[in-house]
Amino acid sequence: MLAKRIIPCLDIKDGQTVKGTNFVNLRQAGDPVELGMNYSEQGADELVYLDITASHEGRKTFTELVKRIAAHINIPFTVGGGIHELHDVERLLNAGADKVSVNSSAIRNPQLINDIARNFGSQVCVVAIDARQTPQGWKCYLNGGRIETEHELFDWAKEANERGAGEILFTSMDHDGVKKGYANEALSRLHDILSIPVIASGGAGKQEDFKDAFTKGKADAALAASVFHFGEIPIPELKKYLCKENINIRI
Predict the structure, then answer these.
(1) Rounded to whole angstroms, how far apart are CA atoms 246 and 75?
(2) Cα distance between residue 172 and residue 131, in whole Å
(3) Which CATH number fits domain 5-244: 2.40.340.10, 3.20.20.70, 3.30.70.100, 3.30.420.40?
(4) If 83 and its partner were Cys, which of 5, 30, 88, 128 is the partner (CB 3.0–4.6 Å)?
(5) Residues in CB range of 225: below 8 A, 6 or more apart
(6) Which residue intervals of the chain are DSSP H helices?
(7) Over the stretch 113-150, which tens digit does the pLDDT of each residue have?
(8) Measured between alpha carbons, how far is 147 from 166 in angstroms, rounded to an integer?
């Protein structure tokens, strides 16, 4: 059985790491390269960097940032934001990224998933899904959670899986930044219907939340931001706790 992964997520705006609650009310969290180096030294398994305001100029800035990250950290990292075509994927991989994350662009153009998988391998393609519960069930959202779509979470995740995605990164917008635990019921269902790993995102507030994501939610990895950025949960302590709880984790 593969070890469960702990993944700090760094949202990047104007070259700096930021963090919000329910996708709004952003506050500064520090230099993305320094934070990444710190997390690597603490024992993080991977990192995710998301350019949350990926305008054309932002993409150029972000490419330079990815080069700096690659030069300073030695664990795998995924980058996302503003990826619309294969050229964007190639640019970021050439800058040193290990994987790319696509979200809005994949919903608008699902063929992009097939193209990334065929040209670069499924392991490169992470499909991120931002969703929240509505009276009609779990609905997927575009543009950093701003626009509701007709896509239903489980149907869309299954389609992404079939098109060649290597992983699903599921963020519950209702749980994001609230620190009351992950959306474990939805995570468990995703695990049951998909043949690829699922990364849990949105809701980490205490060590037990990670354990629950792995046991109740059956997640393959747990991603978090503010609890790491602001020193609330040190990664070495989290990993020791999970080991004691019999979770298969790399120390």
Answers:
(1) 24
(2) 5
(3) 3.20.20.70
(4) 88
(5) 8, 9, 10, 11, 19, 29, 177
(6) 32-42, 56-72, 86-95, 104-108, 111-120, 153-163, 184-193, 207-215, 226-229, 235-244
(7) 999 999 999 999 999 999 999 998 999 998 767 888 89
(8) 25
Q: Where are the domains of the chain?
A: 5-244
Query: Rounded to an integer, what distance in angstroms lies between the CA atom of residue 239 and that of residue 155?
Result: 33
To the nearest 10°, report the CA torsion of 208, 8, 55, 122.
-100
Residue 38: partners with Cβ closer than 8 Å, 6 or more residues away: none
Say if residues 202 and 182 touch (Cβ distance below 8 Å). Answer: yes
Q: What is the mean pLDDT of the chain?
A: 91
Burial class of residue 203, CB neighbours in 10 A (0-12, 13-18, 19+): buried
Q: Note whether 164 and 129 are within 8 A (CB).
A: no
Element at 224 (helix H, strand E): strand 221-224
Question: What residues are annotated to the active site?
Answer: 11, 130
* Inter-CA distances, 116 with 1, 23, 87, Å: 27, 27, 10
pLDDT of residue 87: 95
**How many C-beta neighbours within 10 Å does residue 218 have?**
16
Q: Using CA atoms, how far apart are residues 12 and 52, in angstroms rounded to an integer?
A: 6
Residue 249 DSSP class: B
Contact status, residue 52 vs residue 87, Cβ threshold 8 Å? no
User: How many CA atoms lie within 13 Å of 57's alpha carbon, on the beta-carbon side?
Assistant: 3
Token pair for residue 247?
A: 């979770």
pTM for the full predicted model? 0.93
